[in-house]
Structure formats: structure tokens, C-alpha cells
Design a protein that fits this description.
Oligomer: heterodimer
Radius of gyration of chain A: 15 Å
Number of strands of chain A: 0
Distance between the termini of chain B: 7 Å
CATH topology of chain B: Jelly Rolls
Order of helices and strands of chain A: HHHHH
Structural class of chain A: mainly alpha
Order of helices and strands of chain B: EEEEEEEEEE
Radius of gyration of chain B: 16 Å
Low-confidence stretches of chain B: none
Shape of chain B: globular
Mean pLDDT of chain B: 96
Structural class of chain B: mainly beta
Number of domains of chain B: 1
Largest sheet of chain B: 6 strands, antiparallel
């Protein structure tokens, strides 16, 4: 697993702004720093996240399935925090 | 010598389907709604107008830009404009392939505190494609969102664009 490419980060940055989530007082470089830091944080914690998963799930699940469970939980938490559209559908984007 | 003011109506802005286009949008306020052209924060979006150049003595044409931010309260918006002038009965080139003169830009800083406050800036257009009195002027207007100087998050709303020039 690697971090998102610069283009992918820029795409998420643009979508985040288009969705109206950005604090009004931030500039684009400041928001982009938040996107970069978030992706870096995910990357830095992939191994510890995997280690925290209990058996037999850890051994049985593919990397995609592990990201899926993480995505489901985060989307649910996003809905709980009032993030519009977070995890509104049943699937993983 | 007086100044001629030529407002380019928001409702007359044209989109080119081959180019990322600014989006005409009605913004509902508490007491009234208004029509704006919304410009994205990440991608360069462009709109076009056409107007006759009436009572033009020559010289610089000023583009007066009134704008607001959809959500942001800080940052810089970089606006750009290009014009192309056509002399009826004289110019023989096709309008379909007419090229614009070199773009000119301005960086305008959000005045802060309130998102949808109105701000104003100008571009002194000197790249006029040899525009003369009586010509038809085609205008390309855009937010240069991909430029590093453009730092404002969220959409920028064009509230009004007016061309100003000295009369004959």
C-alpha cells in the first residue's frame, strides 16, 4: 500500500471543496496540507491497523476487505459527526 | 471625455462545451435571489460574452469585476480576461476560429469576515486585439483556479462584469 498520488490527492482536495466541507477561513494550500497529512497518517498506520485486527478476521480478510471494514466504520462515524453524504449508500466508494 | 459603461449581463454568459465552463447559478438569500456565474476552486472555468464597442475613443478598456465567495472568508482569487475584436465588413476571417489576444489577470484578496460580501477589482485591458470603435468584441472571462496565486477555497461567484472605456 502506498500513499495517494499527487493527482489523487488533488482530486480529493477538489471534491472536498466542491462538497462544501472546507472551513471558511482556510486557503487552498492550508486545506491541501490537511489532505496530505490525512493520507500520510493512514499510510503510517496501515501496519498497526492490521495488527490490531483480531484473528480470525486478520488472517481471512484480503487487504481490500480490511480497507472496506475501515471505510464502513469511518463512514458511519462521519454520519454520526454530521458529515453530509458520508456513507449514505450501502457500498464502499 | 466621459466614460462608457457596458455591463455584460450574467444571464447572457455563454459556455463552450469544449471548455470547462463557469456555471450560471441562482443564489437564494434571505430576502432576494440573484444570478451569478460560479467558478470552481480547482479547475479553470470560463465563460464568454459578445458586445459591440460603441462610442469608443480608443485606449485601455477596463474590466470591472464584482465578485463574492460562496463559502470562504480568506484567500486570493485570480481572475483573467481575454478579448477578440472583429471589424464588420472588413475582417474576413471566420468567427469560428477567431483567436483571443493574450490574457490579462488580476489577483484580488478576500476582504475577510463574511463569505458572500461583495468585492471589486479591475483589469486594465491593454491586449485589445486592435479593437476600434464599432467593432464587435468577444470576451473570455475565467477564474485561474489552477494557478498557485489563487488560494481561495470554494466557488467564487461573479456578480457583475462591466467594461468601461472613454467615449469619442
Amino acid at each position: 500500500m502506498a500513499t495517494l498520488t499527487d493527482l489523487e490527492r488533488a482530486d480529493e482536495w477538489a471534491k472536498f471543496m466542491a462538497a462544501g466541507h472546507c472551513p471558511a477561513s482556510l486557503t487552498k494550500p492550508e486545506l491541501r496540507a490537511g489532505i496530505d497529512a490525512t493520507d500520510n497518517r493512514v499510510e503510517a498506520n496501515v501496519a498497526s491497523f492490521n495488527a490490531a485486527l483480531p484473528q480470525p478476521f486478520r488472517g481471512a480478510a484480503t487487504p481490500e476487505q480490511k480497507f472496506a471494514i475501515l471505510t464502513f466504520v469511518i463512514q458511519r462515524r462521519g454520519r454520526g459527526a454530521g458529515v453530509a453524504g458520508a456513507g449514505a449508500g450501502a457500498g464502499v466508494e | 471625455m466621459a466614460t462608457v459603461y457596458t455591463p455584460l449581463p450574467i444571464g447572457s454568459a455563454q459556455n463552450d462545451p469544449d471548455i470547462s465552463a463557469g456555471r450560471m447559478q441562482r443564489v437564494n438569500g434571505t430576502n432576494f435571489a440573484r444570478l451569478v456565474v460560479a467558478f470552481d476552486a480547482a479547475t479553470k472555468w470560463t465563460v464568454f460574452w459578445s458586445t459591440p464597442v460603441i462610442d469608443y475613443a480608443g485606449g485601455t478598456i477596463t474590466a470591472r469585476i464584482r465578485w463574492s465567495a460562496a463559502t470562504a472568508t480568506s484567500g486570493v482569487v485570480r481572475w483573467g480576461i481575454q478579448v477578440a475584436a472583429v471589424t464588420p465588413e472588413t475582417d474576413s476571417g471566420s468567427l469560428a476560429s477567431k483567436a483571443f489576444a493574450t490574457a490579462q489577470t488580476v489577483n484580488d484578496t478576500h476582504l475577510g469576515t463574511t463569505a458572500q460580501r461583495m468585492m471589486e477589482t479591475t483589469i486594465a485591458i491593454t491586449n485589445l486585439d486592435t479593437a476600434a470603435n464599432g467593432d464587435q468584441l468577444y470576451v473570455s472571462f475565467y477564474r485561474d483556479a489552477a494557478n498557485a496565486a489563487d488560494t481561495m477555497t470554494g466557488n467564487a461567484y461573479l456578480e457583475q462584469l462591466t467594461l468601461e472605456w472613454s467615449n469619442v
